[in-house]
Amino acid sequence: MKRRLWSGLVGVVVALAVGALIMLAQGYKPLSTYVALFQFSLGGIGPFTTTLKNSVPLVLTGLSAAVAFASGPVNLGQPGQFVFGALAATLGGLYIRLPAVLEIPLLLLLAIAGGALWSSIAAFLRRAFEMSEFIVTLMLNMIADFFTAWVIAFPLMDRKAFSPMTPQIAKSGWMPDLGLLSSSTLVMLGAVVLVWFVFHRWRAGYEWRMTGQNSVFARLGGCDIHRNFLAVMLVTGALAGLAGGLVVMAGPHRFIKGLGANYAWDGIMIAIMANNSIVGTLVYGVFIAAIQTGALGMELITNVPSEIAQVLQAVLVLIIVATREYTNVLLDRLSARRQAKERAA
Amino acid sequence: MNVLIGLITGMISGATPILLAALGGTFTFYAGVFNIAMEGMMLMAAFFAVLGSFFFHSWVIGLAFGVLGSLTLALIFILFSVKLETDEFVTGIALNLFALGITTYFLRQIFKVKGVFTSKSIVPVPQLHIPFIEKIPFVGPVLSGRNLIVYIAVIATVFCYYLIFKTRFGLRLRAAGYNADSLDSSGVRTSRIRMQALLLCALFCGLGGAFLSLGYVTLFAENMTAGRGWISLAAIILVDGHPYGIAAISLLFGFFDGLGLFLQNYGVASQFTAMIPYIATLFALYVYAQRRREKKRKRV
Amino acid sequence: MNDLIALHNIVKVYPPNVLAVDDVSVSFCKGEIHSIVGENGAGKSTLMKLLYGLVPFDSGRIEFGGVNVRFRKPGDAIAMGIGMVHQEIVLIPQYSVWENVVLGAEPVRTLGRIDSRTAIDAVRSKIEEFQFNLDPLAIVDDISVAARQKVEILKLLFRNVSVLILDEPTAVLTPQEIPQLFAELKRLRDRGHTILFISHRLDEVLELSDRITIMRKGRKVATVEASETNKESLATMMVGRQVIFTSKRTPHQRGELVFEAQHVDWERGDGLKLLDDVSFSVHAGEIVGIAGVEGNGQFELVNSIMGLEQPTRGSFLVKGKDITSLSILERRKLISFVPQDRGKMGASLSASILDNAIMTHHRLEKRFSRWHGLVLDYRKARDFVDMLKERFSVQMASRQSDFRSLSGGNQQKVILARELLLATPFFLMDQPTRGLDVGSIEYVHGEILAMREADRAVLLISADLEELFLVADRILVMHRGCIVADLMTEKTTIEEVGAYMLGGRASA
């Protein structure tokens, strides 16, 4: 546990150093850039709540990937499930008008159902035809992307807008702000707690974890791995769908072009950094959100293009994972060498 | 007639990048590397090819830059996955993200644009006109006048087959995938073979990526590979890495790619025609899964 | 005799802290067969891997022909004339015999093309030179295990090695194939090759070797002349105390019929029957052993009983209840199971000890769950692990440690305990002592015999005939998917069982 914390910290520091080198090579000042970056994301209540709000889709798609990877299914379909969740919530918001107490939960449920629906296709193809979910979910991402692009360009297009987007959803379906804090943040935190509880305390979660680690053993132990596979696919699809719904309901309040593109691989990346741990996903999700949020502000005062955030993210994943794995190997080797020396003496 | 020729040439253009990337991936496939970085390698190549061609007004330098860009990614892959023993899947995903991030960043940083960069100064890879054959009706316009890289891809297919199945390198390459311990205990370092496989993969992905931005079209667009790396991975899996099989599958995808463009002229929404290659991939995976199931039933 | 190889004060620690070889000095002469014996985990394989350059050592030095050497990879060792045949055969099954032999030393023509004709001729002449009776064009996947082992040896001879290291080569052979191997090894020795032979089967070692080095817990105990020692004294040195080679089985009345296999067939897609009309029964308080060379249907039998595979015909009954079409969970209410592969089937190495210990119990025992099975009661689970640790004296750091951190013997204790504590009438064990040290093996045997006392029905599948003769009441022999013999342990001999194993019904 302690070791995990350390290797994570070392990873972050090394990754930031590599990022600094890239900036130096480009002729920017890394230190002031980083200061600006974190100033705009963590420096104060306002920036921090913005970061938290921006972390909602990251943490939720991250949870989706983390639960999937830790339980076996290689669900890489978060982007597709995300846009389908967003689409379902948008549809609900456009055609159903209820008071906010009913509208919001209804739209959230629709988003969950939309994501689960899309992931269930991959689950079905796997169950019925033994098609690996790995490439299937990737292809479904592309298809979902084009499908939603069509929906917002033709049937649901807002005729007053200049680029493809839907009209706004009912006001009662907007996630309210509680002071500076967006209520979508609370939904996300609730989801994190619930998923942690399911994963670590429920019998189903126990079986998912065991199946993810060794499916033959789990199967021989009496776990129904096919049913668990389906359950995990649905749950993880639902989480990604919820992320999509929340982005629509707390942000532009409509489905705009390129809505999901920004979060395409972020969830998977965060889950990988967190080594599929649920708490880790929350931490790294907020961290990545801080970088993304700060990058926009940073661009204003330092001239460093905000796209550097994308580079930084990729470097972070690689370095954090490599550091984590390599620190463990290194520590083991060191202690082995120490003991060998004692024996030889 | 012209429609048919158009369809066929469209098919060839659509097939070429997938063919090249898949040929590259087949080396890592046989070497036992779980390499999913083809997408990133192609994207890097597509960007740097435009960069080289734009600044030096030469498609040769463009091609060289493209391959170098792709090789850089392979070197990072080797550093992390082979040297530091980081998980291959994780390395691949991170590198795809890195390629997307760095190309988007440089697009903004160097060319000062968002989304798409296009310019008259980008010199595309030329088309090759073959004398005599050019004159033959129907066959001529199909076989001649294609982009130089298309011809390279055809030669590469035969070359890869020879390299993998007839040479010493090929024997060791496949051994690395079948049983790395056996190869190691035979006195050949598996890690070395895997590095070579990754470099070869990057070379072919580099050509494929350069074709996208200097042949298929003459511009660079953010994330312009659009999942072609993944489709090429699917193609490899579908035919168990056999170069000739890959060529056939690539042509099939090229056909659907061309069909999409064709249907667009007849008023089908572009969003739907763009889906066709991905749906085709799903269908191909279905056929593959059924065939494998059948095989499994025959021999467990 | 001159020392060809001398190891001086070798130390090896596997990260993070497994002391595998502890200050070992030993020397080997030219033209001798030198055996290295010891229990599992005594460090004999590691010592050879260090010599071979497969594993780096931490301190000490190795002399070869009077010169200090340190091989960084097996290729270096091979170049100097040292070759090793591993415990698990490491060939490429998809390749032909000749391709496997020449891999890494391939003759080539222009453009890197393999000169297959030259290669095949060279391999064929080596085969003739050493009278190995192999077809160079055969695909390795299609040839027998004994033949594959020959390919491994041939591969080294092709590289002109003068020192051959063999790591437990007889483990995969039938009793009848072993003399042939020994004859080949002696022939090699007489031609001047040095052979280092790793084993823990003392009879074989005594028959084959010139000298014997005994290892225990990473240390060298002694090197002795084979002609001046015997089995008992070797065993004592190996284990560090007297070992009893006789059974502790006491007469026990068998009870009612518990498990029955009725005319079970398991047909592969291509029509080959891997289980062919298998029928037998196990009674309460009875231990039935299944002997057979690996790959004669035992795997399919276990998978069919457990429900991983569906038999094509026939049925299994437990206490008269047909389980053939039940789910695995339903079967587990009646069957306890210890699989042969701890890391793949018996446990999850990366999960905690607690998570491993409650598997199956989490479904079958009501006390582990609350809210109608929705939530697991981890407090009860912790108590359960504490009880298990106490009762089976498992050495563990904490309940939350990775299962992998346990020693092999303790891993098997946890698995055994978990399965024992399921209230089932029938116990299926597949090679439960594979890879364990002598102490742990004795423990497992004790538990198996205790189950018999408790009137459970036990089916024990084992490739180790000595084990079967120690604990089983009845021995069934499997050959090519058939049960070819049903013998009372008291009324048969190892030789008779061995003959059935090799030749089926006809030969005995």
UniProtKB/TrEMBL annotation, chain A:
<keyword id="KW-1133">Transmembrane helix</keyword>
<feature type="transmembrane region" description="Helical">
    <location>
        <begin position="135"/>
        <end position="157"/>
    </location>
</feature>
<dbReference type="InterPro" id="IPR001851">
    <property type="entry name" value="ABC_transp_permease"/>
</dbReference>
<feature type="transmembrane region" description="Helical">
    <location>
        <begin position="107"/>
        <end position="129"/>
    </location>
</feature>
<feature type="transmembrane region" description="Helical">
    <location>
        <begin position="178"/>
        <end position="199"/>
    </location>
</feature>
<feature type="transmembrane region" description="Helical">
    <location>
        <begin position="263"/>
        <end position="291"/>
    </location>
</feature>
<dbReference type="Pfam" id="PF02653">
    <property type="entry name" value="BPD_transp_2"/>
</dbReference>
<keyword id="KW-0472">Membrane</keyword>
<feature type="transmembrane region" description="Helical">
    <location>
        <begin position="56"/>
        <end position="76"/>
    </location>
</feature>
<dbReference type="GO" id="GO:0005886">
    <property type="term" value="C:plasma membrane"/>
</dbReference>
<keyword id="KW-1003">Cell membrane</keyword>
<dbReference type="GO" id="GO:0022857">
    <property type="term" value="F:transmembrane transporter activity"/>
</dbReference>
<protein>
    <submittedName>
        <fullName>Putative ABC transporter permease protein</fullName>
    </submittedName>
</protein>
<feature type="transmembrane region" description="Helical">
    <location>
        <begin position="82"/>
        <end position="100"/>
    </location>
</feature>
<feature type="transmembrane region" description="Helical">
    <location>
        <begin position="5"/>
        <end position="25"/>
    </location>
</feature>
From TrEMBL, chain B:
<feature type="transmembrane region" description="Helical">
    <location>
        <begin position="148"/>
        <end position="165"/>
    </location>
</feature>
<protein>
    <submittedName>
        <fullName>Putative ABC transporter permease protein</fullName>
    </submittedName>
</protein>
<feature type="transmembrane region" description="Helical">
    <location>
        <begin position="89"/>
        <end position="107"/>
    </location>
</feature>
<feature type="transmembrane region" description="Helical">
    <location>
        <begin position="36"/>
        <end position="56"/>
    </location>
</feature>
<feature type="transmembrane region" description="Helical">
    <location>
        <begin position="63"/>
        <end position="83"/>
    </location>
</feature>
<dbReference type="InterPro" id="IPR001851">
    <property type="entry name" value="ABC_transp_permease"/>
</dbReference>
<keyword id="KW-1003">Cell membrane</keyword>
<feature type="transmembrane region" description="Helical">
    <location>
        <begin position="268"/>
        <end position="289"/>
    </location>
</feature>
<feature type="transmembrane region" description="Helical">
    <location>
        <begin position="7"/>
        <end position="30"/>
    </location>
</feature>
<feature type="transmembrane region" description="Helical">
    <location>
        <begin position="197"/>
        <end position="221"/>
    </location>
</feature>
<keyword id="KW-0812">Transmembrane</keyword>
<dbReference type="GO" id="GO:0005886">
    <property type="term" value="C:plasma membrane"/>
</dbReference>
<dbReference type="Pfam" id="PF02653">
    <property type="entry name" value="BPD_transp_2"/>
</dbReference>
<dbReference type="GO" id="GO:0022857">
    <property type="term" value="F:transmembrane transporter activity"/>
</dbReference>
<keyword id="KW-1133">Transmembrane helix</keyword>
Automatic annotation (TrEMBL), chain C:
<keyword id="KW-0547">Nucleotide-binding</keyword>
<dbReference type="InterPro" id="IPR050107">
    <property type="entry name" value="ABC_carbohydrate_import_ATPase"/>
</dbReference>
<dbReference type="GO" id="GO:0005524">
    <property type="term" value="F:ATP binding"/>
</dbReference>
<dbReference type="InterPro" id="IPR003439">
    <property type="entry name" value="ABC_transporter-like_ATP-bd"/>
</dbReference>
<feature type="domain" description="ABC transporter">
    <location>
        <begin position="5"/>
        <end position="242"/>
    </location>
</feature>
<feature type="domain" description="ABC transporter">
    <location>
        <begin position="259"/>
        <end position="505"/>
    </location>
</feature>
<keyword id="KW-0378">Hydrolase</keyword>
<protein>
    <submittedName>
        <fullName>Glucose import ATP-binding protein TsgD13</fullName>
        <ecNumber>3.6.3.17</ecNumber>
    </submittedName>
</protein>
<dbReference type="GO" id="GO:0016887">
    <property type="term" value="F:ATP hydrolysis activity"/>
</dbReference>
<dbReference type="InterPro" id="IPR027417">
    <property type="entry name" value="P-loop_NTPase"/>
</dbReference>
<keyword id="KW-0067">ATP-binding</keyword>
<dbReference type="InterPro" id="IPR003593">
    <property type="entry name" value="AAA+_ATPase"/>
</dbReference>
<dbReference type="Pfam" id="PF00005">
    <property type="entry name" value="ABC_tran"/>
</dbReference>
<dbReference type="InterPro" id="IPR017871">
    <property type="entry name" value="ABC_transporter-like_CS"/>
</dbReference>
